[in-house]
Amino acid sequence: MPTPKLVTISGSLRAGSFNRMLLREAVHAFGPAEVVEADLNLPLYDGDLESSRGVPEAVHVLADLLRNADAIVISSPEYNKGITGVMKNALDWISRVKGPVFKNKPTVTMSANAGRTGGETGQFMLMSCLVPLQARVLPGPMLCIAGAENEFDEAGKLINDRYHKVLTGKMEALRAAAEEKEDAPVQP
What is the pLDDT along the chain (188 residues), one digit of tens a residue? Predict the structure, then answer.
């Protein structure tokens, strides 16, 4: 297989977010790849905006990025026991683009949060939102990093071996799914 295209998506726009740190660790665990970080800094979804101006160009760029990905990894915090507004807004816009974007794309979700559940509820909600988009969310143990401020060192490296083991397993499974996709028959 040629070098796989891995798209990373952070449900937090903050440059120093724990989820961006987790994505960097995920990329390292995935191995050699063409990596592109998705930009979720999009206008709020508004049906009137869509009717008057169409789907914004930034959404089309995001959709093309996802459509051309071999694998997708999403790390998103939980805000108030749910999916972040940034993440939900991006998925709402993606649903308005013609043609499947996430369909059958091997996808892994994870979360890092300051709270004691590590973003578990938000991650369940994220996976639920990916169902109608037909993403191929890989099964396996969830990676929910609790007390994230204590789980990364000053360089942004994950320091907990237990979390690192789960992350490595998820990324190995994602790589295998991306490579298997190359041999799979094309579905209509």
Answer: 589 999 999 999 998 999 999 999 999 999 999 999 999 999 999 999 999 999 999 999 999 999 999 999 999 999 999 999 999 999 999 999 999 999 999 999 999 999 999 999 999 999 999 999 999 999 989 999 999 999 999 999 999 999 999 999 999 999 999 998 654 443 33
Question: What does pTM read for this prediction?
Answer: 0.93
Q: Which CATH number fits domain 5-183: 3.40.50.300, 3.30.1360.120, 3.40.50.360, 3.40.50.11310?
A: 3.40.50.360
Q: Considering only CA atoms, which of 136, 144, 140 is closest in space to residue 19?
A: 144
CA distances, 140 to each of 56, 95, 188 (Å):
35, 26, 27
